Amino acid sequence: MRVVTYRGVPVKRQRKVGDYILLTFYDRPRQKVSCTEWETFAENKFYDSSVRRSDVVRGRTATSN
Question: Does the pLDDT value for residue 63 go beyond 90?
Answer without folding.
Answer: no
